[in-house]
Specification:
This protein has one helix spanning 2-13; strands spanning 21-25, 28-34, 40-41, 45-54, 57-59, 64-72, 82-84, 86-88, 94-99, 104-114, 123-132. It has 138 residues and is mainly β. It has a single domain (23-132), classed as Sandwich (Immunoglobulin-like), CATH 2.60.40. Strands 1, 2, 4, 5, 8 and 9 form a 6-stranded antiparallel β-sheet that branches. The longest helix is centred in the N-terminal third of the chain and has 12 residues, at 2-13. The protein is globular, with a radius of gyration of 17 Å. Residues 1-21 form the signal peptide. Keywords: Signal. This is YtkA-like domain-containing protein.
Length: 138
């Protein structure tokens, strides 16, 4: 009982900024965060980190052929997205550096395909991002 109370108290005391956003796509879940308060910084590089999960298993970026497409505004067939170059961090998570020149909404489409067909089902997820001049006060 004391342990449950302690865990509940700890969860309530942790700042909400410690939580990262998660997007689900089929049996895949993508937990994402940026180095700038979960927003994109206008006219500066923003590093986006994605942790990929399929079921209970955390995938390393090397296990997924992922394509990241950045759309200004919403996803639209009339708009040509930017294809982002991806990399991996020390933990094996997928990373990308995003630079935008205007504030406002952006859509990031993550198109994931397995290297081995039996590893997981292909997925497509859309992350809604916001770009701001001052990411820490907007």
């Amino acid at each position: 009982m004391k342990l449950k109370f302690a865990l509940l108290a700890l969860a309530l005391l942790l700042p909400s900024a410690a939580a990262h956003d998660t997007v689900n796509a089929g049996n895949a879940a993508l937990e994402w965060h940026t180095d700038t308060n979960e927003k994109l910084q206008v006219d500066a590089d923003t590093t986006l980190t994605l942790t990929l999960r399929v079921g209970e298993r955390v995938l390393k970026a090397a296990e997924c052929r992922c394509t990241l497409l950045l759309y200004p505004g919403a996803v639209s067939p009339r708009v040509r997205p930017s294809v982002l170059k991806t990399d991996t961090d020390a933990d094996g998570n997928l990373t990308a550096v995003i630079t935008v020149d205007k504030p406002g909404p952006y859509a990031l489409v993550v198109d994931g395909r397995p290297l081995k067909l039996t590893d997981f089902a292909p997925f497509r997820a859309t992350l809604n991002l916001t770009a701001a001049e001052d990411v820490y006060n907007n």
